Here is the input.
Amino acid sequence: MSKTVRLVLIILLFTTFIFASACSQDTATSEKAKVRLSEVTHSIFYAPQYVALTQGIFEKHGLEVDLKTTFGGDKTMTALLSGDADIILMGSEATIYVANQNANDLAINFAQLTQRDGSFLVSREPIENFSWDMLKGKALLGQRKGGMPEMVSEYVQHLNGIEPHKDVEIIQNVEFKNLGPAFISGTGDFVQLFEPVASKIELEGKGYVVASMGKESGKLPYTVYITKQSYIDKNPDVVQSFTDAIYEAQQWVENHSIEEIADAIVPHFHDIDRETMLMVVKRYKEQDTWATDPILDREEYANLEAVMEYAGELKQRVPYEKIVNTKFAEKAIGK
Here is the structure.
């Protein structure tokens, strides 16, 4: 082999090595950050989250999100505190409970998803002009004691001149998943239901939505993305990318039609028929259920504390700054 040919081969090998190294570096750079996300339940109530998943918004922001449903507030917060989840989606009241237990690694609210309660008061008979005094002397099939839905319901009753458990009987021995069937079978005069159960019962003519807990209670941080302070300290870029993606999804939902939203989230809800899906999305969109940005503001936080205090579930107030971090949300919206 001549020196010239040998030199050419060496140059080719060297070039190939450089190219392969560059490709390897590009691949490493393009690897997505993995995020283990746990949601407290699986619901159309969280539509922007599913939009972020189906429309490739998380991927666009460099994230690979593994979503799991942990069914229940206690289980969801435990998943975060034990390290089984990086980020959780649930009510921000849980972070207050954690802070009041003097936890060393606080659970921090960093991005708000929904800004109103998502439940509705359903009557056994249609009522054209409902007023809250119609609950007096009646039986209300309610939610779990100490849970956010029940706290909001009792607070709304209080605001409307009804004393819970005195003016109205509240039945609380029925599991969440059985509330709809129990009402249909004859338990209670009214029931507090989430979607899509409320709309399904209405479409079947077995119950009628007469009031929205979300409208009546005002805005509050009903469901929020939460992570541990230690995770924020170690992964600020991931938290920022996640918040950026959520904001983009919120804006997508804000600027698209009911039909487009339904089409976008249907891969996560194959068991819900089209008519019910459109009815639920319409109801949530029209009452501003979904926050249009991820900032959890002070007024909403104060409203949450008022709801918890009335329910007797707030042992001690926790300063807003201690468990709420808005810097990621503010950067996301360019504030």
Notes: The chain has two domains: 31-116+220-332, 119-217. The longest strand covers residues 107-114. The radius of gyration is 24 Å. Residues 151 and 311 are 6 Å apart (CA to CA).
